[in-house]
Amino acid sequence: MKMPAADAPIGVFDSGVGGLSVLRAIRAELPNEDLLYVADSGYAPYGDRDAGFIEDRSAAIAGFLIDEGAKAIVVACNTATVVAIEKLRAWCPLPVVAIEPAIKPAAGITQSGVIGVLATRQTLASANVARLCAAYGQDVNILLQPCPGLVEQVEKAELDSPASRALLETYLAPLLAAGADTIVLGCTHYPFLLPLVREIIGPERVIIDPATAVAKELARRLGNQRASALRPEPARTRFLSSAAGSNASSVVSALWGSPVLVEPIQARPIAAIG
Ligand code: DGL
């Protein structure tokens, strides 16, 4: 494969609109890079799907981004990372940067020795999270809290509804009762609920969202590979969704904070990639 030009876009994807929380960190860090965001909202949530399904969707979207001329891929989905990253990296010819639950930094920060990790069922059941817990859980009690239903709330842009609050209160209560002083947002949808989380847990506890760290890692990788954009002016951001046509544009606009148009995508099946 001919390597894309430095001014080619960076492809970013998630199971849905959650990865926009990573995209905004990338936009802040890299104002001159063209960005191409794919929300796989037609298939969200990934969190209750089996591993094979998540691997296939991740490969199909990465293949689409390669076809679109992307120069790097950002997996802005913890579930896709912990389930599918090894397979994706094995065949993908582009640099791949991926988000994963920030268990390591949380274990370094906690004063109480108890951290809480909010994430999807699939993420928390994965071998990669087991590996992180084994590596950083020697002296720290790591509480893994699955949060079914939260992704769906953010997919509807219900960021402060009574239903979203009730779910969060249910999921945070056992973590607070056990003395957690550090809460990891281990799903890229959850930072959109951060004001609610903050209200529920109070001002003292630490909330960790690794989006900025991912954006900085991406900038470092592009710089090392001499693949940073050369254009001096602010760049374009395009939004695509496998559920475009319904109310995708209004949901993405609400989360992105300005009106945007969401285009449809048809990611080709995994069998066609290679
Ligand atoms: N934003 C995805 C993540 O970070 C949500 C996965 C899902 O669709 O369940 O895990």
The CATH top-level class label of the largest domain: Alpha Beta
> CA-to-CA gap between the ends?
11 Å
Structural class: alpha/beta
Strand content: 15-25%
Computed CA radius of gyration, to the nearest angstrom: 18 Å
> What global shape is seen?
globular
On the 0 to 100 scale, the average pLDDT is: 94
Total individual domains: 2
The main sheet orders its strands as 4-3-1-2-9-10
Element-level helix/strand string: EHEHEHEHEHHEHHEHEHEHE
- Uncertain regions spanning at least 5 consecutive residues: 269-274
Count of distinct strands = 10
Bound molecules: D-glutamic acid
Helical proportion? 40-55%
Major beta-sheet overview: 6 strands, parallel
Task: Write down the CATH topology of the largest domain.
Answer: Rossmann fold
- Helix count equals 11
CATH architecture of the largest domain: 3-Layer(aba) Sandwich
Written overview of the protein:
The longest helix has 17 residues, at 51-67. It contains eleven helices and ten strands. The protein has two domains: 10-99 and 212-272, Rossmann fold; 103-209, Rossmann fold (3-Layer(aba) Sandwich). The chain has 274 residues and is α/β, with parallel strands linked by helices. Mean pLDDT is 94; it is low at 269-274. The strands form two sheets. Strands 4-3-1-2-9-10 form a six-stranded parallel sheet, sandwiched between helices. Helix 1 crosses helix 10, helix 2 packs across helix 3 and helix 8 crosses helix 9. Bound molecules: D-glutamic acid.
